[in-house]
Specification:
The protein is α+β, with helices and mostly antiparallel strands. It has 15 helices and 14 strands.
Length: about 450
Amino acid sequence: MGMFAVVCASAIAQTPSLTAAPVPMFSPAERAQIAAFWMQPGRMVQGLPQNIVTNGVWQVRPDPAGSAWLLKYQVAEGAAAAPPTTSPTAVETLPAQQTWRNWVTAAIAWDKYRAQVVADGDNEKLQVGTKLGLEGTAPPSPGPMPSGLQAACGDAPPFADVVAPQTTTVTFDDGSSYTYQDHTDVPLSYAYYRFPQGTDTGGTAVRSMPASELDNLFKRAGLTKQEAKAARAVSMLEGGFDSVNTYDTGYVSIGFLQFITSGDGRGDLMHVLTREKLDNLTAYNRDFRSFGVDVTPDGTLDVVNPDTGSELVGSDAVMAVIRDKRLTAVFQHAGEKSSAFRIAQIEVAGADYWPGNDPVSVNINGSVLTGLVSDVVHSEAGMTTLFDRKVNRGNIDPFAAVLQQVMVKHGLTSIPAAAPYERVIIKQCTYRHDFLNDTNLSQPPPSPAGSNNGNQNNNTN
């Protein structure tokens, strides 16, 4: 999730309940008022990005179909659990799959070259942009696709497309304005690009916010000191309270931990909206309902189309937010201006993703032992590592498997007995960042002699 919001599994059972409300969520008068607001002159202004002077009107971007194929390839080569920012062609593969990797790498380079030549030609006709192609020095053709790769993943679509990016600026009555560019510029090897009409902005990074302001927000949200430190550390890999990402497999990803809608509009971002709606209805109505964004009693996104005034629910509402930057801006505006929305984000982070009370079970010599993560993990670095996994992947795997491996190796007969080996276990669960090297977090003690002090790393996925 960083700016790469990928997939967060939603803890639906933990979603706060709302009292029954009539459906539809907006009355005809409310929908008319919302549409009238959004249709005011100057509310949304569209144009060409400034970089056309150097990059031209026509630019090369990933093809969504090619990106989706790359995810199939990543799964086929056994690298599905790699962090989303890792290129599929950079993941270590089995020797037998090296031929696949070579072909994919060459095909991406070939498609990029061909697309850039087309873009250069079109820009030359418009007399804009610097010629970026390399005519006469084309990369080698990838040749025929390996039959095994085709059988595993299907025929590969193009990896590159020629597009004309567009900017959209949305302005609110308080003078706040937000500018977005579609066709987000990500590497052609990125396996999670899905929506060319989507956008991406980091907002104000949590690390740049005053410490006193952050301390107050986390205190008001009721997080413990350890929970707050973990959430703040993981947020460094994500974004600010006002960050937005609508181009990848998270669909609509918002906030300091990139809470998502999922495709059906029922992801953990709905937990955040529900939380604010329950905690501070006045702020919620100001932040969201007044602009045509709401959450249904069963936890589904509901929006008013700014152009037509029609009400959209679920997947239709999700796609409306991705397409229409006015709805996108509602979330960024709330993240920038509303303490209530920020506090709701923090509350859901603690409720949905804190791993300390997660149950864990292992099989030792035919006996199933059960316990909690907190029986083994006591350090801030350890908890933050698992918190990161839970935020980005929806679970703390491979924690249980690594715990069992360590217990068998050292003849341990209870889960709490594994606590001295926390460093070894956490090292093997490291995902996007090695928090064992973070001096701002308390660290596990050195492991007992003979356990490599966590230097072994047999499974980091």
